[in-house]
Each structure stands twice: as C-alpha cells, then as structure tokens.
Amino acid sequence: MNQEKIKYSETEKLKCFRLFLPLRNEETPLKKKIEIMNVIINGTEIFVDLLQKKQEILFDVLKTLRQLLQHKDSLVRTLSCRLIRKCSISAEILAHIEPFHMHFFIVRCLEQRSEFPLERIEALKIVYNWVQLSSETLPRAIVQSLIAISRHKIDPLRVSALLTLTEITLRNVELIAKCGGITIICECSIDPDLEHVQNVLLRCILALLNSPKKSQFIAEGDLNLILSPFISLFEQSITKESFLKFKASKKAIELLLRDWGGLIFLAKNPNGLKSFLSTLRLPSKKVKLFAIEMLYKLFFLEIPRKNSEQTKTRIARYSSMKKDVGASYKNIWGDINSIFPLKRSPYHNLLENYLAILLVSFMDVGLFEALVEVGKESSTSLSFYVSHFLSEVLHNSRHILSSRLCTILQSLPSLFEIAASFTDRPFIRVRASRMLSELDRFARKKKKKSAKDFHITLIVNSIKKNIKSKNVNKNINSNKLGIGMGIDDNDYDNDDREPYETTSQIIKDMKIRNDQILLDQEFDNKIKECKVISTEDHTKWNFHTIVELVQITENNQKYFENCLKNKFFKNLLNFFDPKSDQFCNIKRTIESLSYVAIGVQLLRLLLSNPDGFEFLKNSTFCSSLNEALIIENDGTSSNKSGMKRLFTPTRMSKTLTKEYFTLIGSMTQYDNGMNLLLSKKIIHELERIVKTKGRSDLALPIIISLDYNKSSMTQDLLADVLNYGSKLSRLQGIEHLKLLWRAGVNDFSTWAVEILVKQLHDKDQDIATAALDLLDECCIRSPKCFDTLVSCNPPDLEKFGMKGEKLLLCILSTQKGLSYLKQNGYFDEKLKYWVNEGCLDYVKDLDIYLSAIFDKKSFPNKGLKQVTLRPHFFGELAKTKQGIQILHKRQLLIKWFKILKNSIKKPNSASTSKSTSTSTTTSTSTSTSSTSIKTKKKINQINIDNKKIEQINIDKKKIDTNKKEEEIDNLQIRAILWTIGNISTSGLGYSAIEKYSPIEIITEMAINSNNLPIRATSLYVLGLMSSLDQVRLKLDELGWEYPKEKGRMIVIPMGENKKKFFNFPKVKYLGSYAKHSELNITLNFIGNKVQQQIFNNIRDLGNRITEEATTKNLLKLKAEYPEYFLEPYLFYRTYRILDFYRYRLNIRKLIHHLFKEVYFNEQIFQNFTNESLVSKETSKLNQKKSKKEKNEQDLSDLFILPNQQDLNKQQKQENENNGITLYSLERLRSLPRPNGVNSRNILHFLKLEDFQRAFGLTKEQFLKLPKWKQIHKRKEWGLN
C-alpha cells in the first residue's frame, strides 16, 4: 500500500506541473496565486522527479519561480522561496539557480526588513539546503549576505546566519576566505552576545588549523583577533565592554588550548600564551583573578574557597564519625571516589600526556616566574590562590614530568631568592616567605590526606585486619584523657635491661612507677565520675568519660578485669541490649552517633579478650538480637516474652535501631565473634531477611556492615542479596562490591568475580550493566580477577555494546582467552573487521571521546582525571605468541610500516596543493585562450550553458573525492600509528616490530608532520610505547624525555625536538581578498553621467567615512531621476558589486530599497545570462594578461549582446537604451502592458522609430515641451 502511494503516474505528474501555468499569467488574482502555490507546495513530491528527468520542465519551473520572486507581495515571495527549497532536491537542480540569476532575489528576500520574518527565514532555509547539497556551487552573493547579517548585532537571524556560515567554512573554505568570512567568524568567537555558540565557532577554526590544506586560507591576523582583548587591556582603561570581551577571549583561549592545533599555535605565536601571562602584571585585581581561575580550569584543578578551612574541618569531623559507624550507605556511596580513588588503569592515560605538554609550554613562557611576581606583590587573597595553584602543579609535576624538568620546576629559584634577599623592601620578603610556608603547608596536608583517607570508614576497618593495631596509640595521651601518662603492662614488666643502668634510667623507672600509682587513682575517680555503676539511667551517664575508660581498659588487663567485676561492662552492655529499649529509642542525629562508636569499641574490646568473650557469650545481648530478628522474619508485632517488633521502617529511619547491624558487623571481624553469631542463629535470621522481598531497607544496612575477609558466610549473605533481593538491593550490593574491591578485601578474585559473572545473566539490563562495569574495572587492573573471569566462561558480552567489547578484547590478551574466543567464532569475525574497518573506527571513536572529554562543560574541574585509552584488538592480540604469528602470517606489519614510510617521503601537503593548483591554473588558462573565441561565437545560439553546468557537477564530484581521499589518508596514518603503539605496549609485541625501526619513524612524524592531528597522535603513541625499557633507551638517544615511573606513559620533546614540535607548519596564505578578474569587470561601468554618478555613489557606500554623505546623494538622485532606478542593467551591475564589496546590512537594505521597483522580463534575463557567461570566459582569458591589457579587454568584451556582430554598434545601442527592452507603439497601447511599464515611464520603453513617427520629435525635443503639451500628445496616442 505504501509503495502505491509513493508512485505516481506520468499523467498525475504533468497535471500537477500544469498548476504552474496560471502563476505565469500576470492577470491571475493574488488570492488565486497564493492558493495555487499552497497546493503545489503540498504536492511537490508528486512531480519533483520530473525536474531531474526533463530539463525543459525544470527550466520552465525556474523561470516561473524567478518571476514570482520579484512579486510585490511578501507572502508570494515567501511561498516562492519555500517552493524553491522543496524543488531543490539535488546538486544538479541547484546548479541552475545561479545561471538563472535567481540568487539576486534570494539575497533580497534574505535581507528584507524585520517586518517580513517568514520571507527571510524561508530564504535562509534555501541557503542551508544549498549548503548541504552543493556548497561548491554556492554564489558569492549569498555568502556576502550571510556575512553582513552575521556582523549586524541586533538582527534576529544573526546566530542562524553565523552557524550557516560556519558550516560553509568547513565545506568550502576557499569561498569563505575570499569573501572575508573567516575574519567574521574569529570576531564573533569573542563576542559576549554569542557565548552560546562560541564553542561551535572555535571548533570550526580548529578544524581549519588542523588541516594542512585548509590552514592556507586562515591568516595569522585573523587568529590574533581572538587574543586582541588581552592586548587591548594594556592600551586603554578597563571598561565594562572591554572586560566582557576579555572574559569571552579567556573562554576562547581555554577552548583553543584544549586542542593540539590551538595549543601549538598559541605556544608558537608571540602574542599567544605570553599575552595571556601579561595580564598577571596588570594592576586590576579582578583581571588577575580571572587569569588565575583560567589556569585552574586548564589544569583541571578545583578552585579552593578561602576562609573555609575551619568549616571544612568541623564538617569532616562529623562526617568521619558518621562513616565510622556505617550510619548511611548513601553517604559513603556518594563519596566513594574520594574515599577510595579508582585504581590506576594499566592503559594509557591520555590526559597526563596533554597536561605534560601544556605545563612545558607554560614553563617556556615564564608562567611560574609571573605567578611568583603576583604572589609577592599582591594581597593575601591573591597570594592564597597562587600558592594553592603552585602547590597542586608542583605535586602533580612529580608524576608527569621528567626528572630534569621536575627539578627545574620544583626549585622555584626566583621565589627562594626573594625570600632570602635583604635588598628588597621588607614586606616583599615577608610575602615571599609566606608563599614558601604556604607551599610547605599544602604539601604536608596532601601527604596527610593521602595517608588518612584510606582508613576513615568502618568498611576499611573491617577489611584491613591490622588497622586497629596500627592506629591505636599504646601510650594514651594525657592531654586527651586528663589522667596522666599511660603505659603498657609489657613496658612496665620488662626486665630485659642492660646490666649496667645509668642514673637517668633509674630515675625514669621511678617516674614511671609513680605515674602508675597516679593512674590507678585517676581510674577509680573516672569509674565514679561516669556513674555507670551507680545508676542504670543512661541519661545521667558521662559518655565522654566512658569513652576514656574503654580506651584505657583496651590496653590494660588489670583495669579490664576490674571493669568486669564492678559491673561497668555489664551495665554498659545492658544499655545496648534490645530488650532494655534504651539505645534503640535514641533519636538519630549526628551527635547521637557517638553512642554507636562506643558500642562498636566495647564489642571489639570484649571479643579481643578471652574473659570478655565469655562475658559476652553469657550475656543476653546476642539472644535479644536473635529474638528481634525472629519477630521481624515472622512478621509478628511481639513474642511470648513481651518483646515488641524492633526493626520497623519508622524506627529504622528515625532512631538508632539501624545501628544494631553495625554492631553485628563489628562482631564478624573476629573468629570467635562469628562463631557466637552462628551459635545464637543470628546469621541464619539475617539470611532469611535478605531473601525476603520488599525489605531492601534492611538488606542494605546488613551488607554494608559485615566483614568479608574471614568467613564465607558473610560472602554468601551478599550473594543472596544479589540473587534474591529487589532491584534496588541488587544495585546497592554491586556498588558495595565496588567499595570492597577498591578497599582491598581479601580474595576478591575468588568469590566476588564469580558473583558478578552470574549477574551478567540477569534479565534486568541495569543490573547486568552495573556488574559488567565493575568487572571491567577490576579485571583490567588485577590479573587474578582476569583469570577468574576467563575460567568462568562469561556469557555473550557483545550484547552490552562498547563495554562488553572492551572486556572481550581484554580476554583476547591471554592464550586461554584467545582459544575461548576462537571456539565461540568471535575471533575470526573481529579479525576481519579490524583488518578492514576496525582501526579506522577506533580513531574516529577516540576523536569523539576526546572531544567530549575536553569539552569545558562536560569535564569536571576536580583533580587529575583518568582519560584512559580503550583496548585495541591488535594490541591485545600481540600479547600472545599465537597472536604474533597471526600478524606475521597476514603480513600486516609489513603493510603498515610501508604506508608510514611512504607518508614521510611525501612532500608537504601545502606545497603539493600549491603545485597542483599552479598546474591546474596553467592548463585551464591555456585551454581557455583557445576556446574562448569559439565560446563567444556559440553564445548567441544557447539560452543556458548546459555543458558548463555539467562541468560544475563533475568538478564538484572531483573535489568531494579528493577531500575524502585526503581525510581517509590522514585517518589511515593515524589508525596505523595507534595500532603500532598498542602492539608495542607488550615486550612480545615490540620485539615483533623492532626491526622496522618504529621509534625513528614515529619521532620523525611527531616533529616534522604538517598535519597537526598526526603530530599529536605520534606524541601519544610514543608515550604508549615508553613503558618498555628498550624504548626508553632509544628515546634517550633521540632526545626525548619521560617520567621515572613506568606506569606514566608520557614523552616530552626537548631541545631541537621541542622547537620542531611547537613549530606551526608554514604554508602560503591563499585566502587573500584580492585580485579576481570578475572584480575588475564589476568596477567598470559605461553609461551617461547620471548613471555613472549613481554607480560611483553605490560603490562608495563601502566607505564608512563617506557613507552618510553618499547615502544622501543617492536619495537625492532617486528623487531627481527616478527613471534611472528602474533600469535593469544598472540594477544588475549594482548587484554584481554586492558579490565582492563588503557592505553593512543597513547599506545593503538601502540598495535593495533604491531598486525595489525594477522588474526583469525574460528578454532582460536572457541578455544578462549571455553577458555573464562571456564575462566568465573573459576573466579566465585575462589571467595571463597584464593589468592594462586586462582592463582594455574587459571594457571591450563587457557589453556584447546576442544577435549582433558589430561591437561599435552594440556599445552605441547599449548606451542609448540603457539595457531597457523597447516595445512598439501598438504593444504599449494594448492592455495589459508589459511588466514594469506604467504611465510615468511608458515613453522610456517606446522604440525610437515609433517615437519619431508618433510625435515627430526626438526624445530630447519632446522633453523640452511644456508639461501640458506633453500630456496632450500622449493622450492622442493612448500613452497616458
């Protein structure tokens, strides 16, 4: 049915086409025309294929639409534009628009006043459609119109025109360059009003920079426009407008520095990075802060908040307490990356190589000397930000720079010199010293943070068995407890002393004994002070003293036994007993979590002591917990003993009831504690809970509280949650496994990986994907996890898309994994794909990935991030001997290195394009000289040069083919580079390619390639290869540096290599807005004095100085000689000027207004069509002539009209008629009159012989008669 609707008969098509006939008739009413045009628009798909098959129908349609574009009604013009767009379905149809001179009227529609928005929008849609289908045939007049609209700040179509201009630039940069459009794009990229499209404009500029051929059309002066706001800050006072431009320029520089092309250009340009650093020396504090903020963003550092250290410390104290008791998994989960940073991936971190080059670039221009100047001269706030930035960069530089560069950077000689100098002013020395102290404080703080963050949660305490012994201070601090100096019994009873003790040692022992006596007295006082023994009411207890007593008894057996005897432990444990309704009824707050910390410490103390374990075993604490869990599992409100339901949702959320699972979890850290839980059947009841659906509020606290190091029972509980729990519980369980993996739980590879592989079979896609993400994280970082994954025979991972593909490629890197993938048929299919397309797709995906990562909005500015390289098929394959044999068997290595060597031998792209263009120009000019005369003879016999249109289409296809070949060639080279780099990451792979001298080839490409993306790819690949010792030795010989750590796959050029790497490719500028033969033709005009005066004034409108006076002259001439502004020939010459002259939009609108009454008939169009073809042939012929000969030829060939051979007679007739079509007396008397003829100008269209026959006078004599006599004579002949 659908196919029958789509196909139409020839009769239906012709019937629809006949609707155009009434549109050509000038007598058709306006309303009727609009109705017909709407019908045609709705049925365009019926006859549109006729336009491609039958050229005569296409020509008739275009002529009709050309006539409608001149209509006085805006709605008719709007519908005409819509029809043109609907009919323009191919480049072949669009190629006819310019020969038909329709683009003049499209431009006029595009530049209409704001009262006609629909007309302008439809015209812009035509342009956009044209750009998509055939940007090579786009007329210059349209590009100039888009430029004028883009420059007009208040035009509603400005953004749309600018984006269209940007797309044309990417497709046809030569046309845009010759029209001056690249300058406009650079200007608009720093316009504060266009901030929302700034990214698009700069991406366009970077695309030009990264292409050797396209970079020939962009001038260095255009790029300097982006930096101009920085430079102008020195030359003028800072105003609101200049500051807004400065902010826009700052963002533009950030985006440029995110790309290798922009980074190399700014590093090489004298006004690049240096102009940015010069802003740090401006007196304005606001400007300095913006510059420093930009540095933080460039290096992906979080901007600190001053005067918030105390607040952060207070918040950290409470949050640490909260995490220690495992109060809420949501809080731990939300901060998982800061508590347990992601382990470093074995794959290449691309961000680090970029940051290393960026840091070297700033070091070369003196960034750190400038920052030291700011720090010593500025206020405290600026000094704080500078010091913090320096400390972060100095800290990170140890990992990404070589030892030599790191030493240079870390020394900061200028800062030390100022701090130690007594010749400068004293406050300068003080500020320098303060900066040094702040740098030292930041460095020490980072060390503390890295040592502390790993032990701040209960989960870590349960995983790391020895944390307790490491963190407990055996000598209790007297300042904290207020009870004197604490000692250990082992220290007191130590008799292994030297035989001869000195007097000082005896005095020390006596002091220790005296302190012990005082400590016993203080302990008794603390027991009384806490009131635990004297009363069971916990509201009267002193919990601060209780904490101190628990800490003391933990290291003193005597005090521990006293606490067992005096009921201190009994009453304290009874407080936590569920039956007592004390602990479980306390409202949940941050302060109340201290009770949980006491309970955890108490249980640990009892379980670590044999007597304490017996005490806990005989107490009712565990039995009460079991009863509470049984009530919860049975679903009753109470039991026979009167105990009520404890774990209700309300109590779980509002009280400390949830923390009973934390207490249970602390017991699972000890073997005897686990046995006690089993004997009391608490573990059994927990199993029942996690298998119960709808109780995810209980499952989560259980799994995050247990210890998974010792007992398989807790591991089974977690597996039960993942197998039987709700979707939320399962997702939380997988996230908790991630927490355990990062914290370093024991035997994760043996039990956790198997659990995760089972989750891959889950029907819920979210759960399977979460399990896959964790498997991906742990398997590429742990060989044991990887081996377990392969042995588990994972299911079809391809269904997970890119993530599953990544894991499959990792499996390929082992002999066992390779055999497994061969059996599944995966290997053969992927080998074929990667040989043909995979390597190219790898580069494309990588470009998209990096583009998204380095985007300012999508990349978080917090710390160094890992932008890891995804696995490569051939890189993983080369890690096995069988994989190397496959590469040799298919001769892939020989093929790849042959392509690389050939690319080095090729001449530079710029010189190649230059020689090609030169040879093309020579051949075309020679052929033109031989064929131009023949063309002139045949021009009178054709209406439209169809051969020329066909040639345009052929040239377009050739250009498209050349562009695609160039892109594929560059893409192929980059794909081979990445392939070789990935193969070289393993010793086995590098030994297979070492004979081809890969290091020499890639280093040559990194410093000498004119293609900046290839240069950047070579740098990345060298870093990828630098993990091997033999590669590092080779890099040393060739003058490249690298960090000490082998895991940091970074290389940095030095010496001459660095100069070549940062050297921007030199190309000949081809984007000049200069000599074109058509421009010279346009500037010449032959006519009478009034016509010449009008033409000269229009030409002078491009001068902003004389613009106002010229406008007044034109308006005056319009008032005095209105008939001259009706002449099509003058209109045509004026519009040719618009092709080449850069007028402002208001001036272009003025020109349209002056000639708004001009009407073209078919004969006039035919004359101008033939003339334009002759002009183009003449312009080609004149490319070899001198200026004098060229101008003479232009003047002689310009006015050749069809059907005339005598050039002198042609010029005379042209001057007399001024390009107007003349009619006979009978035609002008009949109605309706021709288009453009009215009672005021009718005599101008009358033939000379009929004029003299009717009036017996020449035109000059007739115009000298009185007005009344002229009117009377006209009435006699019916010409009124």
From TrEMBL:
Q: What are the HP domain coordinates in residue numbering?
A: 1217-1280
Q: Output the superkingdom of the source species.
A: Eukaryota
Return the annotated region ranges for Disordered. 906-932
Which InterPro entries would you find in this protein's record? Answer: ARM-like, ARM-type_fold, Pianissimo_fam, Pianissimo_N, Rictor_IV, RICTOR_M, RICTOR_V, Villin_headpiece
Q: What's the family? A: Belongs to the RICTOR family.
Q: What is this protein called?
A: Cytosolic regulator pianissimo
Q: Which organism is it from?
A: Anaeramoeba flamelloides
List the lineage, top down.
Answer: Eukaryota, Metamonada, Anaeramoebidae, Anaeramoeba
